[in-house]
Structures are given as structure tokens and as C-alpha cells.
Amino acid sequence: MKFRVLEGKHQVFTDIDGVIKVDIYNGETPDRPGKPSRPGEVLETDIDLAEKFNHPPKSLKFERVPDDTPTKEEMEALKDKEKVEQTPQEEDDDAFSEMTVAELKEVALQDGVDLEGVTKKEDILKALRLHVAGV
Fold first, then answer.
1. Cα(73)–Cα(11) distance, integer angstroms
2. Which uninterrupted H or E stretch holds 21?
3. How many Å apart are CA 16 and CA 48, to the nearest integer?
4. What's the mean pLDDT in 116-132?
5. Edge to edge, what strands does the sheet with 2-5 contain?
6. Is 18 left (phi over 0), alpha (psi -120 to 50) or beta?
7. Taking 70 as the threshold, does the pLDDT of residue 98 lie above it?
8. Which of 42, 77, 121, 130 has the most CB atoms less than 10 A away?
9. pLDDT (tens digit, 9 = 90+) per residue, 50-95?
């Protein structure tokens, strides 16, 4: 199950018996290593956090979210993956950005890109990039 932290700092940890637990964060200790989860972050656990912590009912600390909602760790992994993987489109964009207007017009002419009425470099770049993307 996944839950979004609404209020307070909480920590998911494994106790010495190997049981996964969630508790209010009171600082990192040897038996509770790791950083706290802050409001807005998503935790994944088998424990029903809403049932355990939302008492009284007006004191909502967690809300259940769909299981496909990414956790903080999953979001960081996606960001790292995006940094590592550059698509050919991004490489082409870099090559186009370095070209002069005359060079861009030449590429457009060779590739059959219609530049009628297009005079600014930004607009030529946009037309070329759309052409490369197949749009």
C-alpha cells in the first residue's frame, strides 16, 4: 500500500526482529537509520498508516494513494535515468542550436522543411525540431 504524508515527520524502518515499522521521527538512531519522510512524500508499506496514525479522525497524517503513485525513491530513480539517457532528438537539438540561421535554412531546404514566412532563428529551430520528431 502507498500513503502520502500529510502532516509531521515519519520514518519507515525495520526493527531488530526484521519487522517493518512506521513511527514518528525523533531523530536518527542506530536502531532506526535513515531520513524521515516529510509532508507530500509517498511511503510504501504493508502497514495501514491511515488506520494507525489518523486519530482522532480530524488529525489526518496520511492519505492512501493509488499503488502506481511513485515514492520519493522512485521519483529520484526516474530523474537519474532521464539525466543519463539522452535521446537522439536532444542531441539533434544541440546540433541545431549551434548553427547559424543560414546553416539552419540550408538544412531545412535539404530536408524539405517549409520555412515560408519563417524568419527568426527560434521559429526555424522549432520547425526543424518538429520535422525531426515527425510532427
1. 14
2. strand 20-24
3. 21
4. 84
5. 42-44, 2-5, 62-65
6. left
7. yes
8. 42
9. 887 777 766 788 888 888 888 877 877 777 766 655 444 444 455 7
How many angstroms from the chain centroid is the CA of residue 32? 27
Q: Which cell goes with 98?
A: 549551434
Q: Which residue has the cell 515527520?
A: 9
HSE of 128, CA atoms in CB hemisphere, 13 A: 26
| Grid cell of 17 as nine digits | 526482529
Choice among 41-55, 71-85, 116-130 with the minimum mean pLDDT: 71-85
User: Given phi > 0 = left and psi -120 to 50 = alpha, else beta, which region is 109?
Assistant: alpha
Evaluate whether 62 touches 4 at the Cβ level (below 8 Å).
yes
Sequence letter at residue 8: G
Q: For the whole model, what pTM was predicted? A: 0.47
